[in-house]
Amino acid sequence: MADLLGKLICGIVYVTFPTTNIRPDIITPDVFSDMLRFLYNIDAADNLFPSIHCLVSWYCFAGLRNCKTVPYWYRYFSLFMAIMICISTLVTKQHVIIDVLGGVMLAELTWQLSSRLQLYKTFKLINQEV
Question: Which of UniProt's keywords are assigned here (predicted)?
């Protein structure tokens, strides 16, 4: 439910408040520059706030952080990876800091809201009626 709610909010924000980013020209001729140029070609720099990259990465961590059946080291590895994904969106100029913060905050807000309100029960009711 958190994921659906978060992406619904992202969609509303993208339609009502579209954002964009100006990326630098890549002129160096090496394999890493070629990969970044390819990324820029396939992923337009629009609809950036909030970052869905960061939103989904934070959900991965949020789903594990209190799960006692998952080893402690793996839970914190998940946090490390979520943070690294957020950083990677910044250094590759996919997003700016406000996009990252917006994605993480939206993930946390929708995760807490759907957990506290037990919104998953809505799906159980729908599945029972079908």
Answer: Membrane, Transmembrane, Transmembrane helix
Domains held by the chain: number: 1
Question: Phi and psi at residue 45, in whole multiples of 5°?
Answer: -90, 60
User: Domain residues for 33?
Assistant: 2-129
pLDDT tens per residue across span 65-99:
999 999 999 999 999 999 999 999 999 999 999 99
Phi, psi of 46, deg, nearest 5: -140, 165
Annotate 15-51 with b (16+ C-beta within 10 A) or e (fewer): eeeebeeeeeebeeeeeeeeebeeebeeeeeebbbbb
**pLDDT tens, position by position, 29-74:** 999 999 999 999 998 889 999 999 999 999 999 999 999 999 999 9
